[in-house]
Amino acid sequence: MKIELKKLRYVYPSGDEALKGINLEIEGTDPVAVIGQNGAGKTTVVKHFNGILRPSSGEVLINDESIEKRSTAQWSKEVGYVFQNPDDQLFLESVRKEFEFGPKQIGMTQKEIDKRVEWTADLVGLSEKLDLHPLDLTLAEKKFCTIGAVIMMDPGVLIFDEPTCGQDVQGNLRLHRIIQTLKERGKLCITISHDMKFVVENFKRIIVMCRGEVILDGRAEDVFAQVETLKKSFVAPPPITKVAQGAGFTKTVFTTEAFMEALEERMV
């Protein structure tokens, strides 16, 4: 799956310019993180990937096809979006019905739906809660319910908007497994997050946005080495990375083990 933005601009009805001529290409299955301060344009840009928002000017291409050629409902079969607030997405009487709804709309057979419900529920940790009302779930479980509902549609691209909000350590570990499983199944996962520890643990490519523009795009090690540029976006590296940079390490480290190795190298 390939997503390409060409000089993408988006202007709100108020006249505020949210995106300022973005050129960007995302392709393959390596998970991608989009980071930046509130108001940087992260959610605005990813909402163009399946037509929730449409460009004021410029182009959005999915596998070289213009986003304008299909409806959002049609694109959602290929690019699934998990909203930051699960209450914006959940509307049925049980987790099972949430999982089944999308596949039924696209004509998936009941046999295939049943098979996918079992697999998806296990992946997102809701196998024992399929018959519960989504309102009876915790916030973390609601997030996994919405993730599961999108996975059920089997899109090539899945977008997660702030999935770690409300998650504990076990929830973050489950998110890690979901992201890795999707990659293994040939899916592209694009995630917006303010949790830098989660970002460096799960994403090799990081896109940094600031005031409607992409100011950094590359490997995590390279992005977090750009300290002064990151300051412009009000993004702080993970704590262990900041300590290493403060100590004058030239190597960007994200773990305690990497920190100790770098320290030993300096002492040799």
TrEMBL record:
Gene assigned in the entry: ecfA2_1
Database matches in PANTHER family: ABC TRANSPORTER ATP-BINDING PROTEIN MA_1418-RELATED, HEAVY METAL TRANSPORTER
A single GO cellular-component term on record: ATP-binding cassette (ABC) transporter complex
Protein name (database record): Energy-coupling factor transporter ATP-binding protein EcfA2
Source organism (scientific name): Anaerostipes caccae
Enzyme Commission number: 3.6.3.-
Stored Pfam families: ABC_tran
Organism placement in taxonomy: Bacteria, Bacillati, Bacillota, Clostridia, Lachnospirales
Family assignment from sequence similarity: Belongs to the ABC transporter superfamily.
Compartment(s) of residence: Cell membrane
Predominant cellular place of this UniProt entry's protein: membrane
Protein keywords: ATP-binding, Cell membrane, Hydrolase, Membrane, Nucleotide-binding, Translocase, Transport
Membrane topology annotation: Peripheral membrane protein
GO MF: ATP binding; ATP hydrolysis activity; ATPase-coupled transmembrane transporter activity
InterPro entries: AAA+_ATPase, ABC_transporter-like_ATP-bd, ABC_transpr_CbiO/EcfA_su, ECF_ABC_transporter_ATP-bd, P-loop_NTPase
